[in-house]
Amino acid sequence: MRDPGWLSHSGLLSPADLFVGRDGELEAVSRMLANPQARLVTLTGPPGIGKTRLGVACASAHAERSGCDAVFVDLAPVRDPALVMVELAQAMGVEPRGGTDLTGQLAAALGHQERLVVLDNCEHLLAAAPDVGRVLASCPRLRVLATSRERLRLSAEQEFPVPPLAMPAPADVADLSGLAANPSVALLLDRARRTNPGFDLTPANALLLANACVRLEGLPLAIELAAARLKVLTPGELVFRLASRMEVLAGSTRDVPARQRALRSSIAWSYDLLDDGERALFRRLSVFAGSWTLADASSVCVPDEDDALAMVESLLDKSLIRRLPGDEQTAEFSMLESLREFAAEQLASHAEAEETRVRHAEHYADLAERLEATMGLPEERTWILRVGRHHADLRAALDYCLGAGRDTWALWLATALGWYHYTHGDLDHGHALVDAILPRTADRSDQAATSDAAAADGQASVLIAGGVLAWAAGDNGRAKGFLLSALQHSEGRGDARRAAIACAFLGHVARAGGEWEASADWHRRAEAGFREGGNTQGVAWARHDLGLLARDHGDLGSAAELLRASLRDFRELDYSWAVASSAWGLGTTLSAQGRLEEAGSLLAEALRIYTQVNDPRGVAQCLDALAHIASERAHYESAARLIGAAAALRVRVAARQPDSEQARTSAVEGVLARALGPQEADTLMHAGQTMPVQQAADLARAVASGTEPGDPDRSYEVPLTPRERQVAALVASGRTNRQIGRVLGISEKTAEVHLHHVMSKLEARSRAEVAAWAVTHHLSAPA
Fold first, then answer.
1. Is 155 helix (H, G, I), strand (E, B) or coil?
2. What is the model's pLDDT at position 440?
3. How far is 499 from 488, CA to CA, in rounded Å?
């Protein structure tokens, strides 16, 4: 009879539950083990990634295929590296004899027998790795499959980093059978059915379960622990509670090691193995809300860059951080969110927490100040992209500064984020940032840390950003006040760059009010300032702005000439967002001239770019412009849907349609009412409001190409339950969660859960977006 440690090809010691979602990894590791040169294969990865389960499955598959025996050695309870060889010998049935070399005893016992050893949990016993190497050298037909949170660093070693399970994409939710086959969802469903046999995937819970898997980052241990909670929680309640993973992801299964019964215990196992410096860095890295570079880590967490490099490399080797793919110029890193939450708990309990947050805020305030210095210059597009990559950290730094009275830093952070939201059409969030900081600009409590000049420049900058956002939202009075104040600040300090930017947007404000001469004067003044500074990009923007002014004033010939020039300039500068703006402006001009084919091509290009850079305000502009082309071609149903889709997008991002654009849209609506009848036109525009953005963009592209899509009566509805529609309507009426609970006769916590469901289904980022959706769908709040 075999020792209980032996695995046979029948899978004697394989876990009793189903091995889910690892077919690709199982095949890849099996290929490695089938290679005669692969004597040592190490499965590496962070806590909870499923290394042990994959190792057992691979060993069982190899044993069945090759006919060899496999032995499983759990090293987790072992604390002394000197005992590793003893554990290995005992598992193989070799009784250690005192005074004799144990490696020799193993070699004599095994001879030329083909064996596979699974050494599980090696990370805390790396000092024993050379002993493993000597056994491999002495036993030519022995193979070792190790699991460890870092490599054993032996010359014969081949590493296989175990990835998270594949997670569902938003598009997967529409196909229930395909969603059920997704590895993360399949594991969640399998484990949930063990404690709740009637549990199933349905259209009502599909999006929630998919979101749960994404929030759990495809981490098998986290998914299994979460699935157990579905015995007492609904999918919506589970997703809501995952905001605090550590409390939710605790289990009570008795036949697994204690450190695997809760996610916190599994992570703590790895944390305890770090040295003091590595623990400190791991804790401090939790202050980053998004990805970070080695330079970021050095600035915020470790003053010495050489020390930072060595410790980052060590944490990377130990699978506690990960390098992100894609950027070949600067390496970026991040933590799994569950690891970051644990690290943040550790940081909060140490005296260094406040110092780390201050260093983080200072670092990103400096980045924001450098971004603002590029606005209006060719370098701005690179820095806008950089703000996008670090958006979460800039926002976290701003929140800290507002709470800690670091108002000068907050000026720069709000400015950078304001410009980012403007260029991405997200005006509602941009306004909120500027509104949070402007009342504080008169009372800066941290001037000891910054110069008066920096504070004055920061104030001018945030006023410009506030003016730009106010103009884009249609609040021209507020925009003019901000921009005139910023112009006064800038001219008083001899700041030509900021003065030119303020003049340019004062020109837009004047154009919105029909003040044609004043608008032209402001734009020419901006152009002169840009030329004086040798700013070719600024000059191109001045041409663009004067072109839109000529278009709105009815001088279509001059408008086309100026906008073609700006489009050519921006193409040469390779500034895609500006190309989109000029292509849109020129497209609307040519459309007004009746040159529909050329206009459609330009508007399709603008739509493509605005979609790529995630600018919903720009997308809405293109949908409106293409609705005009559809109407001119008598594609009235498409025109109505596009107008509705554009209106819904603008409501979502709090962007008011400029008066000049409103006039064109109103003219199209009049044509639709006459061609379709007022009721049918209104019905189709309402249907457009319910279309997903991607569907609306597909329709717009069909219009641009001159084709008429089929199925004109199709509409698209988001599947909210009746209760969720009531909650959305009450949010739109301005009720708090407590008030919603009173109206509906439910608890405040239940109302909060319902609202979370609504936001998840609508992919809404705030209560304001839920309210906007409810308004566009004409929901009425219950009394």
1. coil
2. 64
3. 8
